[in-house]
């Protein structure tokens, strides 16, 4: 039977998972279709050989260190020797047919990307969530499988579809997942972070974590307020560590939900070490850090070609000269690039003075972004010298990020900030007459 003699419409596919780790797979073709196929095959650990005169830059980059083998020529009979699986992915239907027919003769399963009926193996729409692999086949309309897959993955991610991962309390081994929730907008948490929340039995959440995510949790999930308010009420770090370990040892899946990234001024390593000391399995899910995301959402890049080759992120919770401060403000003042200050609302006057004292120009463009990524995001532009007065006049309160550097001057007058998929327009507000160098943008 040749590759072109089978009719797909009347057949029912037999779904099967191919264990290709360490096994040879030949992909004929080097364009975008081949690239997509190679990505999935390499994720499965296959030993991939690509046969094509030209390949995409991404495939060439994989071939250079030997991650795959590239035969830089046209397909020839015999190229499937030793293969467990084959893919015909050229833009020449004649070549694809020849590959399919050779595979048929050799009893090698083959996918032809341009001829569903000529394929002895149909590649499902595939999605991965942790160690869970979801594949969806559709006999007549392959594009329908992708729609169904997206719906299934969304359900697994938000918890509306149970995946059986959660064990009854007291059975099995508990674990801790340190999740970075991003700068505030719930849409900016990672897929893995969302999945961890959907599987949690207990969530210890900071006040800067996306609060709306807590509302979507099942009523069976215990939520513990582990907030640390600036210079106010807070749960001691030692208590947080103890609760993580206690609940995990009781067999629960525990999520520590933080704003930003757990390892960027989030004391995540202390929690990680506490779990290791108690032999509790612990996973870190990185988050979108506000140090980069919040300026970006205000239209301010922390780097820009030809303008800055470095940026530094500094904790401003202690002022310059404080005996416990570990920051070398003299070195930071001499930098030409971008300085991003977190937790620096109260200490802004002292930090600005130190930067100017150690060499930063007083007229350096500076921006303050408060409530970044939320519907109330507010961006105020000023200069480094005028920063203390600006923050006082505008009543800036935490959470806020401020940025020093020429990149601030790149910001346009029309900006956008996400809010549930909508875009807010920002209108420029006139600066006070005594501060002609200052602009203020307010989310409407």
What report would you give on this structure?
- One of its GO terms (molecular function) is NAD binding.
- Keywords: Cobalamin biosynthesis, Lyase, Methyltransferase, Multifunctional enzyme, NAD, Oxidoreductase, Porphyrin biosynthesis, S-adenosyl-L-methionine, Transferase.
- InterPro entries: 4pyrrol_Mease, 4pyrrol_Methylase_sf, 4pyrrole_Mease_sub1, 4pyrrole_Mease_sub2, CobA/CysG_C, NAD(P)-bd_dom_sf, Siro_Cobalamin_biosynth, Sirohaem_synth.
- This protein is of the alpha/beta class.
- The chain folds into four domains: 100 residues, Rossmann fold, CATH 3.40.50; 30 residues, no CATH class; 114 residues, 3-Layer(aba) Sandwich (Cobalt-precorrin-4 Transmethylase, domain 1), CATH 3.40.1010; 153 residues, Tetrapyrrole methylase, C-terminal domain (Methyltransferase, Cobalt-precorrin-4 Transmethylase, Domain 2).
- The chain contains twelve helices and 21 strands.
- The strands form five sheets. Strands 13-14-17-15-16-21-20 form a seven-stranded mixed beta sheet, sandwiched between helices. Strands 3-2-1-4-5 form a five-stranded parallel beta sheet, with helices on both faces. Strands 10-9-11-8-12 form a five-stranded parallel beta sheet, sandwiched between helices.
- A hairpin with a 2-residue loop joins strand 18 and strand 19.
- Helix 7 packs across helix 8.
- The radius of gyration is 28 Å and the shape is globular.
- It starts with 23 loop residues before the first strand and ends with a strand.
